Amino acid sequence: MQVAPVLLVLALALATPSSSAERKCVLTGSWINDLGSNMTISIMNGRGEFSGSYHTAVTATNNQIKISPLQGSQHRNNQSKQPTFGFTVNWSFSESTTVFTGQCFVDKDGKEILKTMWLLREKVSSLHDDWKATRVGVNVFTRRRRE
Ligand SMILES: *[C@@H]1O[C@H](CO)[C@@H](O)[C@H](O)[C@H]1NC(C)=O
Ligand SMILES: *[C@@H]1O[C@H](CO)[C@@H](O)[C@H](O)[C@H]1NC(C)=O
Ligand SMILES: *[C@@H]1O[C@H](CO)[C@@H](O)[C@H](O)[C@H]1NC(C)=O
Fold it and tell me: Which PROSITE patterns match (predicted)?
């Protein structure tokens, strides 16, 4: 007598897309953030160390923006589906350095998203100016394409 509702529940369960928690968030590939900056993580070795490039859409300097190299590492390579990571950008058009730290998440629609915070260290001319040398911010990246 209760067969039909049971079948309906079963059919709904089968039709539901696999839970986002089952998908793995992979850092390699091309990403774009909320400012329109592009980042490509090209190489990831077996120890979770990676390198890539960063093309920023914004700069605190008056210099012409150039694509800059980045190097970082992700935690617990291959074991975590939503790994934490960090990387350093060596700006090639100014004597500044930025470090990012973040986590790679898979959202409820199965889309990967990188939630990050950064510190930008600008070079200042003397110890006296040290107090104003660091900026902090937040960036959210989504995938452009898998490489
Ligand atoms: C990032 O990529 C998008 C899409 O390819 C492009 O429109 C945009 O100009 C790029 N941004 C920078 C800073 O290169
Ligand atoms: C980690 O994953 C990569 C690609 O997903 C694979 O090539 C590699 O063999 C894996 N390493 C380990 C230790 O499982
Ligand atoms: C950092 O940037 C400078 C200036 O572009 C370059 O000479 C240097 O090789 C870079 N270092 C790394 C590790 O990418």
Answer: AVIDIN_1 (PS00577), AVIDIN_2 (PS51326)
Asked if residue 116 belongs to a domain, the reply is yes
Counting from 1 in the atom list of ligand 1, the atom nearest the Cα of 56 is: 13
Residue 33 covered by a domain: yes
Q: Is the CB of 20 under 6 A from ligand 1?
A: no
Q: What is the pLDDT of residues 9-20, one digit of tens each?
A: 555 444 444 454
Work out how many domains the chain is built from and give that number. 1
So what's the pLDDT on residue 3? 56
Closest alpha carbon to 28 in 17, 14, 13, 44: 44
Determine, yes or no, domain membership for 81.
yes
Residue 15 falls inside a structural domain: no
Q: Structural domain of residue 29, as residue ranges?
A: 20-145
* CB 38 near ligand 1, within 6 Å: yes
Q: What's the CATH code of the domain at 44? A: 2.40.128.30
Distance of CA 110 to the CA centre of its chain: 16
Centre of ligand 3 from the C-alpha of residue 54, in Å: 13
pLDDT, tens digit (0-9, with 9 covering 90-100), for 29-79: 999 999 999 999 998 998 999 999 999 999 988 999 999 999 999 997 667
Q: What is the pTM of this model?
A: 0.79
**Which has more pLDDT, 79 or 140?**
140
Q: Is the CB of 59 under 6 A from ligand 1?
A: no
